[in-house]
Specification:
The complex is a heterodimer of chains A (92) and B (267).
Chain A (H helix, E strand, L loop, with lengths): L2 H6 L5 H8 L10 E3 L11 H4 L3 H8 L3 H20 L1 H7 L1
Chain B lengths: L3 E9 L20 E5 L2 E8 L6 H10 L1 H21 L3 E2 L5 E2 L2 H10 L1 H11 L2 E10 L1 H11 L1 H11 L3 H35 L4 E4 L5 H4 L4 E11 L3 H15 L4 E9 L9
Antiparallel strand pairs in B: 1-3, 1-4, 1-5, 2-3, 6-8, 6-9, 7-8
The chains are: A mainly alpha (92), B alpha+beta (267).
């Protein structure tokens, strides 16, 4: 893996996201009805701030686990078969 | 159908031929869609005005951490995904318009500026660098080898005893001041070096330990706009600084590529 890939795959904490999306996006004036300029991060819960995005994704996509475990069973079955070639040859 | 528009970002209409990823919008119900307006296409979703009034959103942001976490992540993930496919001017979290007309009007007013911004962003990436340091360790170095401190010590050593006592008390203050100066010098130097491989570099506010949850102090927070071919050099340089200065108490944290939030603002 290149340095770039390693960094790209690293977990990002909520604080890093807020640092970016609350700080300085484009502020187009006009009929903009809401702009959240300065949320005081100091008053937010530290545990949540430093929680990484990955935790959130797993939490949100609980359904994925079912697919994963099915996939896991299939993989394991395949591995079991692969690991027992001798038994099969005995049967033949 | 909701009557507010949540704006994620603006892309050149010429790139809008590439289909949007199927993503649910801010409320988790309405899909995101494109709103073309001549050369600029807005990527938006509908939001119910009753459920997402300015008041409700402010209240949620300040009092409902779970909501903020979920929505901030939604915004980030959506814009990040878009940034992989299009040249995008990303919008700040919770940028809402009353209706299509008001959004169109704003886009029209900023047409020229947007065109310039798209040109600037095309082929470039935003990266963030945070530098952390172990204050105690660096303080030790400052106390031992900083020339100002050294000179002060010598000056004190020849004073009468009574005076020495008071002067020594002031020393700690002086060391703390020199520590801050030293940290700034170090980080500014790194910043300038990295700027030489970037198009732009800009310095951001640092966060306290109460927000980062780290034992080291954040000494520097900065963003760079890098031409894609320079990213590798940039990262290699940072890796080298990491190796060179780790023992002295410095830590470097790079993240990216980010949608270009910092380099697409309108003045």
């Amino acid at each position: 893996m290149t340095v770039r890939e390693t960094i790209e795959n690293k977990d990002i904490a909520l604080i890093d996201i807020l640092d970016v999306i609350l700080d300085k996006g484009v502020a187009i004036k006009g009929d903009l009805i809401i702009s959240i300029a300065g949320v005081d991060l100091v008053y937010l819960d530290l545990r949540v701030l430093i929680s990484s995005v990955e935790t959130l994704v797993q939490h949100k996509q609980g359904t994925r686990k079912i697919i994963n475990s099915e996939q896991f069973d299939r993989d394991r079955e395949a591995l079991d078969h692969a690991a027992q070639p001798d038994e099969w040859s005995h049967q033949r | 159908m909701g009557d507010l528009l949540y704006l994620y970002g603006l892309i050149p209409t010429s790139e809008a031929t590439h289909p949007l990823p199927s993503v649910k919008g801010f409320d988790g119900e309405h899909e995101i869609f494109m709103l073309p307006n001549e050369d600029v296409t807005a990527i938006v979703c509908h939001l119910d005005h009753a459920a997402y009034s300015e008041e409700t959103i402010s209240d949620k942001i300040n009092n409902d951490m779970e909501w903020l976490q979920e929505k901030a992540f939604h915004h980030h993930e959506t814009v990040q995904q878009l940034a992989k496919q299009y040249t995008i001017v990303p919008l700040k979290f919770c940028t809402l318009y009353k209706n299509e007309e008001s959004l169109r009007e704003t886009v029209n007013k900023n047409k020229t500026k947007l065109k310039e911004t798209f040109e600037l962003l095309d082929g470039n990436e935003e990266w963030n660098l945070k530098i952390y340091c172990d204050d105690e360790q660096i303080k030790q170095q400052v106390s031992e080898s900083n020339p100002v401190i050294k000179a002060k010590r010598e000056e004190i050593s020849v004073l009468p005893r009574g005076r020495q006592f008071f002067e020594k008390k002031k020393m700690d203050e002086l060391i703390n001041q020199e520590l801050e100066d030293e940290k700034n010098r170090f980080c500014e130097d790194i910043h300038e070096k990295l700027k030489s491989v970037s198009l732009y570099g800009s310095i951001k506010k640092t966060w306290g330990k109460d927000v980062t949850g780290r034992k080291e102090k954040m000494a520097w927070n900065s963003v760079f706009l890098l031409p894609s071919p320079n990213v590798e050099t940039f990262l290699n340089n940072v890796e080298q600084y990491e190796g060179d200065f780790e023992e002295a108490g410095w830590k470097f944290e790079v993240s990216g590529p980010w949608p270009p939030y910092h380099f697409s603002s309108f003045s």
